[in-house]
Every structure is written in structure tokens, then in C-alpha cells.
Amino acid sequence: MSIECPEAHILADQMNKEVTGKTIISYETQNSQQLQQKGFISKNVVFEQIVGCKILSVIARGNTILVKLDNCWNIVLAPEYGGSISLHTSQAKPSKFHLKLDLQDIILTVNLAGIGCIQAVEDYLLKTNYLYNRDFSQTLNPLETDFTFEYFIEKLDNKKQNIKTAIVGKTAVIVGMSNSAFQDIIYRAKISPKRNTGTLTAEEKKNLYQAIIQLIKERLESGGKSQFVDLYGKPGLYISKMGSNQKGQTCATCRSKIERINHGGGQVYLCPICQK
Ligand SMILES: [Zn+2]
Fold first, then answer.
1. How many whole angstroms from 228 Cα to the centroid of ligand 1?
2. How far is ligand 1, taken at its centre, from the CA of residue 22, in Å?
3. Residue 238 and residue 63: Cα distance in Å, rounded?
4. What pLDDT does residue 1 have?
5. Which of 94, 113, 188, 255 is surrounded by the fewest CB atoms within 10 Å?
6. How many A from CA of 225 to the centre of ligand 1?
């Protein structure tokens, strides 16, 4: 279960309320050695630098959460392939985490379920951080007000590519969407995953834009997608309209059997009748 932009936004919002202004008293890493070797988690010698730093703000863009510290340090968090960021009381003894931060009267833990990022990064090195570079970029963030229909269409028309590549991944026209959102969005927009954006009609582009806006709105209102848990451990209630949840089921609109195909480096569920 990947964390996408609505879930990253929910976490950053909650963290901003709870941890901004707090000082990092100490840290602890656990079961992190392998992930540290792969570079997903900073080495302990790097985390030592952030002890004593104060948290100035927490913002999310795309799938990435940036915890801005004083003394020119940052923590870049992205449970890209799932994981959790959780708040605990100072008396709690959390058992499952990769990084634990003692923040005076509360404890923050971060746990990765797969590929992800828990890195302490100095300001001057942020630009060289892969996830920061990807998500805090010029690429549109569908949660922001500059994500207008006109702007989206312009970007979409400039890149004539497969629709999955246009929505998900490094060369996408937006940040923060993964395969989970993609399946849901194109089902809502009634577009086949095999289409090239160069072949989309004006109406399909409009449907695509509205599907993205609507998906994000519903995810935020539901506290994130199912399987996601927020900072307080509360699970998200959003059930995707198309994806692995629909395995073996029929389409809610036309009652056709939902199909699964391998596409763009992952499995995509679809309705072969509704999606053209
Ligand atoms: Zn259908």
C-alpha cells in the first residue's frame, strides 16, 4: 500500500500541528542496517547531526514529506511502498519502527514497509536528494491551486506518451500518484490504460482531470485510502473504485467482469467495456 499525495498531505498536516516547534532530544534506529546500506535510511552518523534541532515546519508535496529543521537540516520522509508515521505519548514504548525521534513530550516513529526514504539532509544537499528533486519540482502537484484544467492539458499535450506514464512515475505530468490512484482515475474517466495521451479527445481529457480532482477530494475527506493509517493510527476509509479490491468482481456500472492486465511495470485492473 503506497502512500500517495492525499495521504502524504494528511500526515504532513497532522505532523505540522503536533511536532512543529518541538526539539529533537534523541533518536533511535532499529532494524535499519539493510535499508541504510541501500541508502533508503540515513546512517546513524548523519542522524546524530539532527539531535538538538528544532522542527520549523512540515510540508508535503507529491508522495514526499519534508520536515524542515533549524540549523539548515531537514528530514525527508516518504513511505513510498507503504509504511507508517506515528505519534506516541512519551511513556509509550513503540516496538516497530525504523526511526524513532524523542521530541520532548511526544515520540514520533517512522516505519517503512518497502522502498522508501527516511533521510536527514542538509539544505545544500536537498537538490541532490532523489525524492525531494522529484516531488518538490516544477511538475504539477494536483493538490495545489495551480493544478488548473488548462495547465494540465498543456502538459498532457506536450508529452504524447502512454497514459500510465503520464500519470505515474518519473516523467509524469503530475507528482504524487502511483498505480493505485492510476487504476481508479482511468476507470472513473472511462479510459483504457493502453491509450496514448496524444489520442485523447477533449472530453476524455476533461474527464481525466475531473477524475484526478475527485479522487483526491474523496481520499482527503475519507482520511486516506483503506490500509493507510494516519499519525494517530486511524485507518483511512476510502475504498478504490478500481484496483485489486475489485479482483473477481463485476463492474459497478456495466456488470462486466473486471479484468487484470500486466501494464507499465505493474498490474492494472480495468473494466474492458467501460474503459475505451
Ligand atoms: Zn463497466
1. 27
2. 50
3. 17
4. 63
5. 255
6. 22
The span from the CA of 32 to the CA of 45, in Å, is 13
Positions of the chain with pLDDT lower than 50, given as ranges: none
> The C-alpha cell of 175 is what?
507528482
- Three-class DSSP category at 113: coil
pLDDT in tens, 225-256: 998 999 999 999 999 999 998 999 999 999 99
Q: Are 12 and 83 in contact (CB under 8 A)?
A: no
Residues in the chain: 276
Q: What are 88-112's pLDDT values in tens digits?
A: 999 999 999 999 999 999 999 999 9
H-type helices in the chain, by residue range?
5-19, 33-38, 44-47, 130-135, 149-158, 163-167, 179-188, 202-221
Place of cell 505530468: 173
Nearest in space to 73 (alpha carbons), one of 16, 23, 9, 148: 23
User: What's the farthest any 2 CA atoms get from each other in the chain?
Assistant: 59
Residues around ion ligand 1, judged by CB within 5 A, are 251, 253-254, 256, 271, 273-274
Residue 256, helix vs strand vs coil: coil
- What is the three-class DSSP state of 145? coil
The confidence score (pLDDT) of residue 114 equals 87
Q: Is 127 exposed, middle or buried (0-12, 13-18, 19+ CB in 10 A)?
A: exposed
HSE, side-chain direction, 13 A CA sphere, residue 236: 29
Residue 240 C-alpha to ligand 1 middle, in angstroms? 15
- CA–centroid distance, 248 to ligand 1, in Å, is 13
Query: Going edge to edge, which strands form the sheet with 64-69?
Result: 55-61, 64-69, 73-78, 117-122
Q: How far apart are CA 29 and CA 40, in angstroms?
A: 13
Question: Cα of 254 to ligand 1 centre, how many Å?
Answer: 4
